[in-house]
Amino acid sequence: MEIGDAVLKLCPDPSLLNDEETQALVDTNKDIFQRAFSGTTLSVALLDEEQDNLWVAGLSDLTIVLTFEDEDGLGEGKRLVMLHSTHMPKEYCGINMLHPSVEKDTIMKDDRLLGTLLPTRGLGDHPLKFKPIFSTKLFFKLPTETRTQCYLDNGETEVDKDPKDLVRSDPAIVVGKLLGSHIDDSYPQSTLEHSVKINWAGENRNRATELLGNLMAGTSMETFAKFLGPVEYGKWDEKLYFDDTTILVYDLTQQP
């Protein structure tokens, strides 16, 4: 059952409940309401067994990048999914068009949705998808400017891309090059303004950590240590942003 549908099945109209009934309902079904209250981003990529077709889907302020090596072993990359963020004009305008003009000063604050979120699409976050009464009656400690539905969307963006149609100016190419077997030293200097080291984590490396390390710090051990644990320095570096990321890989082909 869809996350939001589970809430609506329990309580299609919160206005019909008094405070005691609401509290009892939330306490009894805490997991359901917690999932609906919380939110997350998602990227999915599915490759067929012949490796001829690739299907991707993404929600929120993240993307999916197709990377490959050329005959010289240099990496290339192509962005496949657009970002769903308030920084994207199409998303910004789309959210504003859904709401009356009286909300024009509250929908976007500091370039964030209701002053709190950058993503305009995601899984969960149903206080920003349901009518405001769900926030005032069922969800607690939420942004106070929710008036009409809905501010956050969960619709995917579908695109049809030819992998050969490369746009070399796309930032996704940076990721592609960092995933190659080797790299021209001048490239990271001109794009990241620091040197990088390919395969620095060894044979059984964590590719995600290696990629993030090269993006954030490159060969600077001091910067990389700060990236891993800024609190050790006694202060938070506002230039660095940290988020929890989970990567799941499933092999859908039958193993011999």
TrEMBL record:
Question: From what superkingdom does this record's organism come?
Answer: Eukaryota
Q: Which SUPFAM superfamilies match?
A: PP2C-like (SSF81606)
Which Gene3D superfamilies does the annotation name?
A: PPM-type phosphatase domain
Alphabetized InterPro entries for the sequence: PPM-type-like_dom_sf (IPR036457), PPM-type_phosphatase-like_dom (IPR001932)
Residue span(s) of domain PPM-type phosphatase: 34-145
The protein's name is PPM-type phosphatase domain-containing protein
Give the organism the record lists: Armillaria luteobubalina
